[in-house]
Amino acid sequence: MTSWDRVAAFGNQLLEVHIWLREMLDDLTDGIDDYFAGRGLPPTDLRAHCLAFCSALTRHHTGEDRTAFPAIAAEVPELRQVLSELKTDHNQIEWLLGNLRKLLDGLPEQPDPAAEPKVRAELVALSAVIQTHFIYEEKKLIAVLNDMNVPEWRANPPAFLQLEE
């Protein structure tokens, strides 16, 4: 491994996870669009897809809160305010995920036009917060993570750097 490989690893891995989570969110959005158009997944499959996305995102954020953020705070103390803001985002995202799960849990087999505005509003809010959060986090942390050398993360990648459950 060259020194460049070591330098780039963690920030690039974070970006890969964010891309993967964005794709999962896009797939969920497409599934919801298809459901309300009457041509998509049954609600049970849509809920399973939502659960997979929600679990992956929660695992990622929990991993950041427990592993990445304390390590970054120790290495770059001037980022503590940024890390606090990101944790606040995590709480807001978790709340929005819970709202979306509840709405999807209540969907009938056939699309209900009355449910569509509520589901779409929650999905738009969730998507907006996630996109803003990811952009801010990438802007503030990728370079820092790329500069970090944490051998145990290479040996045993923490949850926030993993693409699979």
Chart the SSEs and their pairings.
Blueprint lengths: L2 H34 L6 H33 L4 H26 L10 H32 L3 H5 L10
Structure report:
InterPro entries: Dimeric_xanthone_biosynth, Hemerythrin-like. Residues 13-143 form the Hemerythrin-like domain. This is Hemerythrin domain-containing protein. It comes from Actinoplanes aureus. Pfam families: Hemerythrin. The chain is mostly helical. The protein has a single domain (3-161), classed as Four Helix Bundle (Hemerythrin (Met), subunit A) (Up-down Bundle), CATH 1.20.120. The protein contains five helices and no strands. The chain is elongated. 21% of the residues are buried.
Structural class: mainly alpha
CATH architecture label name: Up-down Bundle
N-to-C order of helices and strands: HHHHH
* Residue windows where pLDDT falls under 50 for at least 5 positions: 1-8
The first-level CATH class name: Mainly Alpha
Number of domains: 1
Helix content: over 70%
Percent range for β-strand residues:
under 5%
Query: How far from one another are the termini?
Result: 27 Å
Concise synopsis of the structure shown:
By secondary structure, this protein is mainly α. The chain has one domain (3-161): Four Helix Bundle (Hemerythrin (Met), subunit A) (Up-down Bundle).
